[in-house]
Amino acid sequence: MRRALKWTLVGGAGLGVLGLVLFLTFPAWSGFGAWIPVPEEAAPRTSVVRDSLYADAARGALKAIAEHRQEHGFPGITASVSIEGETVWTGSAGWADLETMIPIASRPVMRIGSTSKAVTATALARLLDSGRVSLDEPLSVYSDSYPNPDWSGLTLRQLSSHTAGFPGYEGNRDLFGARMTVCGCRTYSTVWESLEIFDGTDLLYEPGADFKYSSFDVILVGAVLARVGGEPYLDLLARLVFEPLDVTSAGGDHDGRDRPDLATFYETDGRRARAWRPFDLSQRWPGGGLVATSEDLAKIGNAWLDPDFIRPETRHAMWTPQVLSSGRVNEQSYAVGWRYYPEAGDPRDSEKISPYAHHGGVSKGAMSWLVVYPDYHLSIAVNINTRADTFADFAEVEARIAALFLDRIEDLR
């Protein structure tokens, strides 16, 4: 796409950026469902315990997510725990669809938003282990032509740690791309094609000099990995990540089509909900457009601790918070595809240290949270089919689940 397709603000004249984008995308804002009440009665619950050693922790975890759903008025919630590479518990509470009262256990596949970045990082780690890519070679090594020539000197490390200089969705200066970002009204068959939504925007700063969380840089990572692998991005994920781990639910979202196991996604307002309008997420698969169950996310998280799946040296490199050219660690302790806290407080006692890696995601009518505690070989995933008022309102239940299973792991040691 021509780089000339970008906007400039001119002294408040005309509609302004937001007004212009809203004007251009007005038809795409229609289509939300009618408001309906979130039922007050007790929601259906399910709990699958695959290791009786954790039965008590599982009962506590099911109680925690059911109370959390009720407290915040979420339509549905799912969670899963993996220990030592094995799924030990999966639970759910609430509804996948409020109009038909389908339990969330029947349609547990969720949009995972930016947790997709950790999935893309898993494919990156596998290609690093095979020697097919390097974190620090320029992108020109992998292709002699990019839609924006400024990208050729960037590295996979810079892109995957959000230090390359890309803006967020709100800062996109590509007029066509800004419209696509808001309306979600085009299907992309490849990630390379989806680069057109931001190829006309400029970098914000010299690569490596600062940090700006963005999905655009990870979309480019996905495109590069697909080109290196010689196959479509989703096929690459299947070969390198999903099939070896027996992950059967994960894939790319095309606004929910052809996925009968996909939950309905909602906007909520107190105790009311309405179905989220159609939105095609193929524009952002690597950075925010994948779907999966909590169980499969927890599998992927725990696989990072398996030396036969990802080499420990690679995990260490990718779980090291990245340092800017100024010499300071970036403001979010962001590593390569994950946030990592080497001296984090334990969920049970803030004075204890339990290092952990995590990634969260916010999507159209959904939130996702994946956490890995390497010292305990524990991975936990939680998902809801709406958006909470704040991410902390949603994610705080993970600490309750973690405390239960961490205690039990210590008892068994």
Descriptive report:
The model is unreliable at 1-19 and 25-30 (pLDDT under 50). The chain has helices spanning 16-24, 26-29, 55-72, 116-129, 156-160, 175-183, 191-194, 216-229, 233-242, 285-288, 294-303, 312-318, 391-412; strands at 36-37, 45-49, 76-83, 86-97, 102-103, 110-111, 251-252, 266-269, 272-275, 290-292, 339-341, 345-346, 349-353, 356-363, 366-373, 378-384. The chain is of the alpha+beta class. Strands 2, 3, 4, 5, 11, 14, 15 and 16 form an eight-stranded antiparallel sheet that branches. Helix 3 packs antiparallel against helix 13 (391-412) and helix 4 (116-129) packs parallel to helix 8 (216-229). Helix content is 31%, strand content 19%. It has 13 helices and 16 strands. The longest helix is centred in the last third of the chain and has 22 residues, at 391-412. The protein has one domain (45-412): Beta-lactamase (3-Layer(aba) Sandwich).
How would you sum up this structure in a few lines?
With 413 residues, the protein is of the alpha+beta class. Helices cover 31% and strands 19% of the residues. A hairpin with a 4-residue loop joins strand 4 and strand 5 (102-103).
Tally of DSSP β-strands: 16
CATH H-level homologous superfamily name: DD-peptidase/beta-lactamase superfamily
Structural class: alpha+beta
What is the CATH class name? Alpha Beta
Number of helices: 13
**Could you say how many structural domains there are in total?**
1
Q: Roughly how many Å apart are the termini?
A: 58 Å
Order of helices and strands: HHEEHEEEEHHHHHHEEEHEHHEEEEEEH
Radius of gyration: 21 Å
How much helicity do the residues have?
Answer: 25-40%
Q: Pick out the low-confidence regions.
A: 1-19, 25-30
Q: Beta fraction of the residues?
A: 15-25%
Shape verdict: globular
